[in-house]
Design a protein that fits this description.
Blueprint lengths: L15 H29 L1 E3 L2 E2 L16 H27 L12 H28 L9 H31 L27 H17 L33 H4 L2 H5 L4 E6 L5 E4 H5 L4 E8 L5 E10 H8 L7 E5 L8 E4 L1 H4 L5 E6 L2 E2 L9 E3 L12 E6 L1
Length: 397
């Protein structure tokens, strides 16, 4: 009885050729997405000695240059994730008939493939669905998204490696032009005369449709990272030129609960820790120092980014003023008391770079309060979430 009966799936599209090429495309997109995603996670999250891994113990493995590296990496992460959505859906259509094979297991290689499928398909759907929800700030769950996304990625990539191993012989055959094509009668009737087979679609056309849909999805969202394509970003949740002072805001001062503290005329930033002399500098004191202007990207983990002109005091100048050691690690803490990202830690690569600023101005104006007034951290090649706003303390570690 169908669907286990031989010949139940008669479409030419249920073929190893389209399946292999779609698998190759998904392998590339998932690999790029995995590498860039794990990199971003390790930069941001506490994983070793209570400090971000790439800055732990003075390693300073995450560089300050090139300044736009994280922008490129995270832009690729979101773009490849978006591109994978139509590829995965078409791939599932092309191969779903294998779920009904009888007998269920045909040898060791097939057993490995079958064992990897629940983790591979379930993990892929979970990653893509929750990833899209994240970039739209729609958290319809109670778990902590970054941690769940991170571990699901490891599980999925492990299942993908198993699947690649199991299907390598088919992929080699298809790429080498020796694919075994399913034979089917004309496109209007099955072998037993029971109706349409493909509705006119060919193997090549289904690949073209999958690739075209993937490209369209990317084109309609990547404008949040690539400014010249901003007008085409119809599906992007953020536009890089829309927001106070010409670029977006993720968390407002009101949402962070810092309006009163940030607008206090008695605000000062404290330079403390392993220094020869602790400092307490008012906004007027900071403005009286030698200010430096830099054009640096602000790059968000959700994929949007914008290049902006900043003006402020280099962190390394504050270290010199306080008598701190050159290349010291520094913890920058916000006036915000509650939340996941109320501070960030900078390694030697960033504290030594003159472009790492305690910024006071943006685009020639004092910072808007939602952009971190009276002062915020801005550093080259650092995730936006780690560029701490509403700075209250700079601690030399």
């Amino acid at each position: 009885m169908p669907p286990f009966q031989k010949g139940s799936f008669r479409s030419r599209l249920h073929d190893e050729g389209p399946a292999a090429w779609l698998g190759i495309a998904l392998g590339v997109t998932f690999t790029i997405c995995f590498v860039t995603g794990v990199t971003s996670h390790l930069i941001q999250h506490t994983t070793l000695r209570t400090q971000p891994l790439f800055n732990a113990g003075g390693w300073s493995l995450w560089p300050a240059r090139p300044a736009g590296l994280y922008r490129l990496s995270q832009g690729l992460h979101v773009a490849t994730g978006i591109a994978a959505i139509p590829l995965l859906l078409v791939k599932l259509f092309v191969v779903y008939h294998h779920l009904w094979q009888w007998p269920p297991v045909r040898g060791l290689r097939n057993a490995v493939e079958r064992a990897s499928l629940p983790l591979l398909v379930g993990g892929s759907l979970f990653l893509l669905a929750t990833g899209v929800q994240n970039i739209f700030y729609w958290y319809a769950w109670r778990f902590f998204f970054p941690t769940a996304h991170y571990w699901a990625a490891w599980i999925t990539i492990g299942a993908l490696v198993m699947h690649v191993f199991a299907k390598a012989h088919i992929t080699r055959r298809v790429v080498g032009g020796r694919a075994r094509r399913r034979e089917a009668p004309d496109s209007t009737a099955g072998a037993d005369g029971h109706g349409p087979l493909t509705g006119g679609l060919t193997r090549r056309s289904v690949l073209t449709l999958a690739g075209g849909a993937s490209g369209l999805f990317v084109l309609s969202t990547v404008g949040q990272t690539v400014a010249p394509l901003e007008r085409l970003a119809l599906l992007a949740p953020r536009r890089p030129s829309i927001g106070p002072q010409g670029f977006p805001v993720n968390k407002t001062a009101a949402g962070a609960g810092v309006v009163q503290a940030a607008m206090d005329e008695g605000w000062t930033v404290k330079i403390v820790g392993r220094v020869a002399r602790e400092l307490e500098l008012s906004l007027a004191d900071l403005r009286a120092l030698r200010l430096r202007e830099e054009e640096l990207p602000i790059a968000c983990v959700e994929g949007w980014s914008a290049s902006v002109r900043w003006r402020g005091v280099p962190i390394r100048d504050l270290l010199v003023m306080a008598g701190g050691a050159e290349g010291s690690r520094v913890k920058v803490s916000s006036l915000q008391r509650n939340g996941l990202y109320t501070s960030s830690t900078l390694g030697a690569a960033h504290t030594s770079d003159p472009a790492t600023l305690l910024a006071l101005e943006v685009e020639g104006e004092p910072l808007h309060i939602d952009h971190g007034f009276p002062a915020r951290l801005i550093a080259p090649n650092l995730p936006g979430v780690l560029n701490t706003k509403w700075v209250g303390t700079v601690e030399v570690l």
